[in-house]
Amino acid sequence: MDTNSSQNRNQKNISENKKTLRRPTKGKSSYKRKIYDLRNTPKDTLVSFSLGGQEEVGINMIGYKYNDDIIFIDMGLEFPDEEMLGVDYIIPDITPLRGLEKNIKGIYITHGHYDHIGAIPHLIDKLGNPKIYGLKLTIGMIKKRQEEFRVKSKPNFIEIDIDDTLKLGVFKLSFIRASHNIPDSSMVIIDSPVGKIIHTGDYKFDMTPVDFNETEIHKIAALHNQKVLALYADSTNADQPGHQISELKVEKSIRELFTKAEGRIIIGTFASLLSRIQQIIKVSEELGKKVVIDGRSMKNNVAIAHELGYLKYKRGTIIEYKDMGRYPDNKIVVACTGAQGEDRAVLMRIANNEHRQIRIQKGDTVVFSSSVIPGNERSVQKLRDSLYKHHANVINYTMMDIHAGGHAKQEDIKLLIKLINPKFYVPIYGTHTHLKLNAEVAEETGILKENIFTPFNGQLLEFNKREEAKIAESKLYLNNILVDGLGIGDVSGIVLRDRKQMSEHGMIVIISTIKMSTGDLVGNPDIISRGFIYMNANKKLVEDIRTKVKETLKDSDPLTPANQSYIKDKVREDITKFIYKRTHRNPMVLPVILLM
Amino acid sequence: MDTNSSQNRNQKNISENKKTLRRPTKGKSSYKRKIYDLRNTPKDTLVSFSLGGQEEVGINMIGYKYNDDIIFIDMGLEFPDEEMLGVDYIIPDITPLRGLEKNIKGIYITHGHYDHIGAIPHLIDKLGNPKIYGLKLTIGMIKKRQEEFRVKSKPNFIEIDIDDTLKLGVFKLSFIRASHNIPDSSMVIIDSPVGKIIHTGDYKFDMTPVDFNETEIHKIAALHNQKVLALYADSTNADQPGHQISELKVEKSIRELFTKAEGRIIIGTFASLLSRIQQIIKVSEELGKKVVIDGRSMKNNVAIAHELGYLKYKRGTIIEYKDMGRYPDNKIVVACTGAQGEDRAVLMRIANNEHRQIRIQKGDTVVFSSSVIPGNERSVQKLRDSLYKHHANVINYTMMDIHAGGHAKQEDIKLLIKLINPKFYVPIYGTHTHLKLNAEVAEETGILKENIFTPFNGQLLEFNKREEAKIAESKLYLNNILVDGLGIGDVSGIVLRDRKQMSEHGMIVIISTIKMSTGDLVGNPDIISRGFIYMNANKKLVEDIRTKVKETLKDSDPLTPANQSYIKDKVREDITKFIYKRTHRNPMVLPVILLM
């Protein structure tokens, strides 16, 4: 007796599943193309390829291969959009590297944000535990994250200095410190046998940054006459005109706000925005305020950055909630996570009066020191509404310059291109729209249109010895690997489709027991539903469904296995139609036939 | 044999359900307060109350009551946010009006948008079919929508002219034409026994609008010396500084774009944005272009507005897809729906190559002539990505003034307040944040802080004969009524919670058949799951779950009913824990015990 219809169904759909493992947003054209074999790249040709980061913000992982040697820059993760129900995050697909593990000469990580380090614990075992290089804080962040996972490989993380050079197979790497919003962000200069590549990582220009964030503009300027072959550059803010504002401006706004506030200040920002946290602490110390840090990830980041000397504060500046009462309200600053309206983060708990140690009171100023990540607008709005209801003053970045992004805007991009003067330009990191807009900016600076490439994930760029470049005709076959709980890659398109259907109209299980000897229905069919309708108020509908099931079953002989699956299909079809007609809803209908 | 555990569960939770029927965003404070009885409002006092629209954008329905007479302005619906899984829309709760149906002297509808007319077909039967008044196009839109629903009451829709006055009980209503982005938008002057109320509906100031959209500023100016008691004014764009841009500016941008485009133009906008559609048609005619209208709701709106004389075009301007081939590409304009990235709307189908009559080709210009509604950012981004992939030129409102909102911005609000010079100011229509920001603007213009009220839904404002106003201490008890398919109000908090859980981790049904005579398990438990895990690749996990269920069942005696429900709970608990430990996921576990 096995009526495990889910398994049956999956069995039927194995071939379909292969396809649906790809995220729905990808185009279908790739299936038709020939698959590129990374083991056989053209001789004496530099080949670059993205395993992610060219069609989304996140899962940044770009590889460079020359003959037998491969290096990667970054291994990031992406947080899923609302269609990927229940998925925790997405990591790059490294299948095309199978058999090439020994060719990986090293991986350089440009900085410590999750969209650049997040996939490391999930992938290093499979990649044969390659050496991973980074600056001090970056390696610190990677080690910290590693502790949260069960990883077989012994960590192979190597801290380097910004002025070091690395020899990874045929590649020689050197580095440029870059302004971003976490210390130890860097660009990479990759010297390859066919020429010099500049890979920016995340960057902006900030001539007046906070500590540890100065762009080494002299190193960039020195590249001008070095015949740079190609510039691979961040597109994240290429949709925005003008220059990114300076952290100094932000610091001034924070100082103004902190000086004027008559009550407590509660300031929400990203846990990873260490430069902002440093500013908050710095200004608080100037004004004699005490700072509570709240939110697990922010506390972790502060601890590690402080330990490594990247975040400075005086003894006694950082306090716990329990000590708040010892200071007047206008000496209290709470720096916390949750400025994106995340459900269980600190700021939401505060706004909903669900926080154990702090309640919003009249006179509190709540500051959103972050932009709103696309897709979070409604949650942030709800958060603001709740705060207003509790009579807080609410300040966000549209009202004051209390946030600066970490990425180059259009005028910054132009400056970088003019300084470096590359032959080829390759927008990286962002949606296709971002890449295209970055390409338009580059074209405006005078780069030839035919020398600008915006490859999709899995597409390959080939540079030969004659300084020629082209996009390869075939491409890598990539899936986006979904991580859900402890499972990696076991949430497929079918599973997501089922979640989607149930999320909209719920489901209804119909269990019919049939006497094997006679083929008769035993008793009434049992009906269980969840997420469909408030059943107690709809007993009539439930009865009518039962009656309908009986009718469908009456004329059938369930005793042969083939027929049994036919009956299930029939019940599913009849009841689906019946329910739609009655309610205009489409719950998932799951018929179960039990034989006794 | 009845194992309908869903009903059992609902039964248990009936009292809980009463609460959860409220949307989760509402505060809990209201439960503690006394409930206001609309049948007993204070004598000779004007009482205003919102059944919706004060904590969200949509479900606008504000009532005014004086002794026995009640009027309403608007009856709108709201589209749900992503947490209200599967809900089609939300309508106001009219329960507090029970027994007062005869007191409703009439309902005035300010304009024909869904957030002002959408709840009419769902509510008029229950309200005793009151008279509904509006300008010509508004009544036309209401009648059109009515056709889509089964409504018992004979329509009681009365068309009025902008210069008419209405006597509804003690209330005298007169009207002011207002600029918005649909013709026949209006403000209402309500003369009540305690004073004059101005209720703006949706408005902006546009000194150079498109046809039929001129604000009657002389009527507004005339109010200055009439001692207006209170101004109830739109807050939708109160978060935005400056003035709303004029439709003339938008028209100029459209003309520039249409003139320069070398290929076809595909322009997406809201179906209800009739003034924009008029501009598109007007400019197309000037330039000798032909216009295809695509999208059911847009076609409907164009048809009705044309029929009533509000949308003008020459014979031959509007063509069908099949006739496109007769004109060169640069003479073709497609005006369509879907600029918000809606799944099945025209623009998304075009972008995904799923549209039957049109494919994107190189040279096409795709124009987003609308803002992005908060929450839609990611879908719009995906839409733009798809369009870029097909080499379309993509233009949106951040690149050019090709969209003007329909609502007053901060400087417009100031102008209105200065012109009308009211004693009291009541921000309406928007989230609480919008209302608060509107209040701040009013305070800046010199309205006394204590004369500005931002009541929540269900809160009541009382104006007495001495021109005093206050918010009542008790409030109306309101639910948000969720409409899902044909069901109104039958989707409760429990149903939504179940949908949410299933959307994140799916569900697993465990069916165990037990021999009544012995209490033994018959065969193996059946396990069905959906949306949880790709089961074929996880047979081991399924087997382990089965084993775990058997263990749980072994030590139990299922024969008494009480015990049976105990066993179910035990299975649910054990398996939930077991699955979490193994997978870090929380699917909904539904145990079924069948007795044979």
Give a concise summary.
The structure is a homodimer of 596-residue chains. In chain A, 30% of the residues lie in helices and 21% in strands. Chain A is an alpha/beta fold and 596 residues long.
Describe the model.
The structure is a homodimer of 596-residue chains. In chain A, a hairpin with a 2-residue loop joins strand 10 and strand 11 (195-199). With 596 residues, chain A is of the alpha/beta class. Chain A contains 17 helices and 26 strands.
Strand tally of chain A: 26
| Helix percent band of chain A | 25-40%
Strand line-up of the largest beta sheet of chain A: 7-6-5-3-2-1-20-21
Oligomer: homodimer
How are the secondary structure elements laid out?
2 copies of one chain form a homodimer.
Chain A: H1 5-12, H2 14-20, H3 29-32, E1 46-52, E2 61-66, E3 69-73, E4 89-91, E5 104-108, H4 114-117, H5 120-123, E6 132-134, H6 136-146, E7 157-159, E8 166-168, E9 171-177, E10 186-192, E11 195-199, H7 217-222, E12 228-234, H8 247-260, E13 265-268, H9 274-286, E14 290-294, H10 296-307, E15 318-319, E16 332-336, H11 346-351, E17 365-368, H12 377-389, E18 393-395, H13 410-420, E19 424-428, H14 432-445, E20 460-463, E21 469-471, E22 481-484, E23 487-488, H15 493-505, E24 507-514, E25 521-530, H16 539-554, H17 561-583, E26 588-595
Parallel strand pairs in A: 3-5, 5-6, 6-7, 11-12, 12-19, 13-16, 13-17, 14-15, 14-16, 17-18, 24-26
Antiparallel strand pairs in A: 1-2, 1-20, 2-3, 4-22, 8-9, 9-10, 10-11, 20-21, 22-23, 24-25
Helix pairs in contact in A: 6-10, 8-9, 13-14, 16-17
